Amino acid sequence: MRRISVKLLLAVIISFLATNLIFILIARLVLSTYIQEEKMNIPAYNVLAFGLFFIAVVVFVFVFLVLIRSHIRYLKEISEQVQKISNGDLGATIHVRGKDELAELSQNINKMSAQLRAKFDREREIEQVKNELISSVSHDLRTPLTSIVGYLDLIKKRENIDNETLDSYLYIVDSKANYLTDLIEELFDYTKLTSPDFQLQRNEVDIKRLLQQVIGEYEPILKREGIDVHTDFACEWNVVIDVEKMVRVFQNLLENAKKYSKKPSVLEVNQKVQKDSIVISFTNSISISEKIEVEKLFDRFYRGDESRTDANGSGLGLAIAKQIIQLHQGEIRAKQQHDRLTFLIKLPLTQESLENHM
Ligand SMILES: Nc1ncnc2c1ncn2[C@@H]1O[C@H](COP(=O)(O)OP(=O)(O)O)[C@@H](O)[C@H]1O
Ligand SMILES: [Mg+2]
């Protein structure tokens, strides 16, 4: 490591030696021409001494500056780049030269500049996502609200409305209002889950028992809709998860199976262990004609065409599920094989629970 203090000291020594050399040369010249030939008076001697001393200083400063000029230039360059960064050119970099402290300083400034850029970009992205969210939400809120207001208007006027029509209007208003409530609730949950300071409340539970419990609650509802549930669970495994949130994921998937499956059909739920993860899958039937854009399923506000028209989903269910699984350092994805759609959840197992199963 060539430290800058060593370099400076070297520059001082070299300047000193150079000054001495020149001083000796001049002194010799002056001494031989003046002092040896004629006697000098004291003022002249003083002037001569001062002149020599002055020359020595100038030589020293000159040699020193020549030796360190590249460093001064580099310092100037660093200062200019820092100025640029402070003026908003985030990401601007300094060419790193050599290995001394100045090079280190440049490296650190480059790092800082890159971090500032990344932070700025991230914030802008968050801002953009928020704006998109607000505009899609406004649209989704406005549509049912407009129809509620419209029907209420009709009811208020009471012009030739028989009881049957009134009932149908009220039914529509009621269902739209319920839809709005659900949408707002899901939206609230989604924003909470995606906020940077959201914390999971993790506990150790047996995933098999949890799945059995949730499915047990849903089985009668699914059966009523013509969906039989088949399960195949591996042995009991303890996982450290936020139980409430994980139940939410399972409920969202079961609710989707209920809403979007072809009926009658079978819903398969499997759970197995793969290397160091637990893999849970939900597979339901869909009609072959249905073209599902598997990569888009987890996008916010994505709804299949048919469901969009009857507008009883927010399109947030799978986005919420994905967020929860990601907070657990897991993965969720979907795949379609002919008329079967599978949702796969992969959750990492802790070293401890792996050891317990050895
Ligand atoms: N199990 C499923 N079978 C078939 N299609 C599904 C299934 N789950 C989700 N989808 C499709 O994905 C879309 C998004 O689902 P989701 O995010 O839960 O929103 P939502 O249920 O509110 O519409 C649904 O509108 C539907 O078209
Ligand atoms: Mg859903």
Can you summarize this structure?
The protein contains nine helices and seven strands; from the N terminus they run ααααβαββαββααββα. With 358 residues, the chain is an alpha+beta fold. It has three domains: 4-89, no CATH class; 132-194, Helix Hairpins, CATH 1.10.287; 203-356, Histidine kinase-like ATPase, C-terminal domain (Heat Shock Protein 90, 2-Layer Sandwich), CATH 3.30.565.
Task: Based on the model shown, name its key terms.
358 residues; alpha+beta; Helix Hairpins; Heat Shock Protein 90; 3 domains; five-stranded mixed sheet; two-stranded antiparallel sheet; 9 helices; 14% strand; binds adenosine-5'-diphosphate; binds magnesium ion
Task: Spell out the blueprint of helices and strands.
Layout: H1 4-35, H2 42-86, H3 101-157, H4 163-194, E1 203-206, H5 207-224, E2 227-233, E3 238-241, H6 243-260, E4 265-274, E5 277-285, H7 305-310, H8 317-327, E6 331-337, E7 340-348, H9 351-356
Parallel strand pairs: 2-4
Antiparallel strand pairs: 1-3, 4-5, 5-7, 6-7
Helix pairs in contact: 1-2, 2-3, 3-4, 4-8, 5-6, 6-8
The protein binds adenosine-5'-diphosphate and magnesium ion.
Magnesium ion (MG) is lined by residues 252, 255-256, 313, 317.
